[in-house]
Amino acid sequence: MVDAAGGWLLPGFVDIHVHGGMGEDFMDAGKPGVLETIAKFHGSHGSTSMLATTMTATHDMIDGVLEAVWAYRHRQQSGMPGRDIGANGGRGTDSGSGVDDRMHSGTSPGASIEGVHLEGPFISPKWPGAQNPDHISQPRTDWLEDWEARFPGLIRQLTLAPEREGALETIAWLRANGRTAALGHTDASYEEVQAAVGAGLNHAVHTFNAMTPLHHRGPGAAGAVLGSDEITAEIIADGIHVHPGAVKLLAKVKTDGNLVLVTDAMSAAGLGDGDYFLGDLPVKVEGGVALTQGGALAGSRLTMIEGFRFLVRQADLSVERASHAASAAPARQAGIYEKTGSIEQGKRADLVLLDEELDLRGVWAAGQKIG
Fold first, then answer.
1. For the whole model, what pTM was predicted?
2. What is the CA radius of gyration of the chain?
């Protein structure tokens, strides 16, 4: 029995765009302890599920991350048969074959890594942000087909620039295979985004960042995200990436459950100022702000509980709406809403307990206390 003392019991947070934390980066997933460290850190801050997010990198580098996460998930799931590790991303249900995770005593405490979000490498050279432009590639559906054959269901989301040659075919492949097709790091016009929506585009990463901005004579990618109900919009609610007023605007437009809180956290999350890496790019954190050597924002030090509080305190969302943006909406996009993202009989006991001041008082993943 737990006395909530007048606080809030919420579904565990689901972070579908996170690169690392506590000095570790998902691009180093093959090194001992990296995945466990990231999962434990973010789990202690309310994330009970997450997608390991890669950077724009070479085929072989991404391949290594996929192989490491695939092996890690099978180690997580080795104790007890149950539901699958397949994916049906984009507001779908889970399907495939395998075993459900963390339903046994041998699991290390922390967030469940439900799959992978590929951020790149099929992005625009004009909007690399903190991505390494040397590794940018034209969309390659053959890469996705190979990865799907070797790691079925592992890739849940892919971020690309929809204006690039071959992007519409890649988007169509993603949606036909039940995956989230997201725009990001893009030079697309409003019209090009609309064409991508017609092909199946259904998500936008870190809205307003690394995309053509809103202008009244050229709405750009940002305008298309705001105006398209089909597009679910991520927001990094840290007050650094997006002004609180713009967060409020997005929340006023995205009212049909299609606002998604993410951290975009990098390896410095949980640590102080200093020198770090995001993928293979050097990053300096000063005053809590992470920047590349060229001055581009390089992810964040945000945790989901901090982003959740920002939505309530700075963007004026109700606790219920902020909870939906932090749990139900991302769970649907990741294709895992059948098992998490809400408090319902038959779902995993992924729970966050907050007091009346929204301070974290407990985190449970699959019924196991992790924070």
1. 0.91
2. 19
Longest dimension (CA), the chain: 58
> What DSSP string runs through 175-186?
HHTT-EEEE-SB
Block mean pLDDT (10 aa), the chain, length 371? 93 98 96 96 98 97 97 78 39 37 53 97 94 94 97 98 97 97 98 98 97 96 97 97 96 95 96 91 91 90 97 97 98 97 97 97 95 88
Provide φ and ψ at 253, rounded to 5°.
Answer: -90, -40
Half-sphere exposure (CA, 13 Å, Cβ side) for 86? 14
Residue 45, CB-side half-sphere exposure with 13 Å CA sphere: 23
Alpha helices in the chain (DSSP H): 34-43, 59-76, 141-150, 167-176, 190-199, 220-227, 244-253, 304-313, 319-323, 329-334
Phi, psi of 324 (to 5 degrees): -60, -45
Cβ-Cβ contacts under 8 Å for 100 (sequence gap 6 or more): 77, 80, 81, 82, 83, 84, 339
What confidence tens digit (pLDDT) does each residue in 12-37 have?
999 999 999 999 999 999 999 999 99
One of 84, 264, 275, 316 is an active-site residue; which one? 264
Beta-bridge partners for 363: 352
CATH number of 12-267+298-346: 3.20.20.140
For the question of residue 264 being annotated catalytic, the response is yes
The upper half-sphere exposure of residue 361, i.e. CA atoms within 13 Å in the direction of its Cβ, equals 16
Per-residue pLDDT tens over the stretch 31-78: 999 999 999 999 999 999 999 999 999 999 999 999 999 999 998 877
